[in-house]
Amino acid sequence: MAKVSKRYKIIFSIRFFGYLLIIGGLISFTFMLGPLGVAEVKYRTDKVLGVKRTVANVVPTPVPSNNEATPNTKINDQAEKEALKNKQSFSSNQIVPVSTEFGIVIEKINANARVIPAVNPGNEKEYSLALQEGVAEALGSTPPGQPGNLYIFSHSTDAPWNIVRYNAIFYLLRELEKGDRIVIFYANKRFDYVVFEKLVASPTDVSYLKNRYDIPVLTLQTCDPPGTLLNRLIVRARLVSS
């Protein structure tokens, strides 16, 4: 009986730790892919139900004076609250921008995020911190509405699990096509861009970052395939109204 009992304990211990590893792996997998799964389900559900999302017409926040916060400093939290205080009055199909100081809304894929300004895309530590708060505007970008290249990106290389998490906002960029609208809010003004090109580029190809144009162009970048570092998905759009 003693031998049987000992054998039973060994088998039980092996099974227990095996199940523990499996459950831990599933939890980790869900944590990593959860944001992408939620984005995918929402997008597919909207498509099946024919839901068309639009940007809510929010009341702009007061434009900061010279000694107050601007898009190149920290977000004015009080102003943000004032801009969104009537959020409950909007319909469920309307997207209320999380920031009118500097934000991006893509109606087709229900993307809505702050844009963190002047982030060095070559400094992993810097952009990893920025991408915890939203998406990043590449250092040296042209301000919205002005001729040149406004470059906004969302990717991370500090750890595999963060590659997925930080890509969640731009995860569905692959669904954009020519003619789709991208809305940028900057200094409490709205700028509408329309997509004219989508392509996949090598991670070493920085020409789309360095390009300068004589018209206002918006360039969005994320990883492709989502959650990997193999390639870069580039979406370019031109300004149509402001």
Automatic annotation (TrEMBL):
This is Sortase. The chain crosses the membrane at residues 12-34. One of its GO terms (molecular function) is hydrolase activity. The keyword Ligase does not apply. Keywords: Hydrolase, Membrane, Transmembrane, Transmembrane helix. It comes from Candidatus Daviesbacteria bacterium RIFCSPHIGHO2_02_FULL_36_13. The lineage of its organism: Bacteria, Candidatus Daviesiibacteriota. It comes from the Bacteria.
